[in-house]
Amino acid sequence: MDIKELKIGTFSEAKKEIEAVKASPPSVNLMAEKSIFKTIKINDMSTTAANILKQEMLSRGGEAAVSERTVNCKDKTTDVVLMGTLRQFREVSKKMRGQPLGLPDLGKWIEQMVSEEKKK
After folding, report:
1. For residue 98, with 0-12 CB atoms within 10 Å meaning exposed, 13-18 middle and 19 or more buried, which class applies?
2. pTM listed for this prediction
3. Which of 12, 48, 86, 118 suits 34 as a labelling partner, its CA being 20 to 30 A distant?
4. Phi first, then psi: what are they for 85, rounded to 5°?
5. Residue 24 lies in a domain
6. What distance in Å separates the CA atoms of residue 11 and residue 14, rounded to the nearest whole number?
7. Are 110 and 99 in contact (CB under 8 A)?
8. 49 lies in which domain range?
């Protein structure tokens, strides 16, 4: 048995490694989405929107770092650091479409980011 850490930076690299182990062809794209981790920063988001976004990320296994004063909306805005896989971001982008507070625009931005990453 030989063990090594893979440094996967692009979607095509992920697909190549997954295909190399002879994974089921229909599952390659799904698994590749799970192998690419992204971190996004949003400045000056309303704390109400940040609370919604954080819950959506957490429910999909991602993470969202926000100000400690966000949970009770003691501040009007917060910066947000989102962390997750392409798959988690894709799923969150869909949920943002039906939300208020500018979240549909964020959802579109995330959807575009995922689409661009999958071209690499």
Report:
1. exposed
2. 0.91
3. 48
4. -85, 165
5. no
6. 5
7. no
8. 37-118
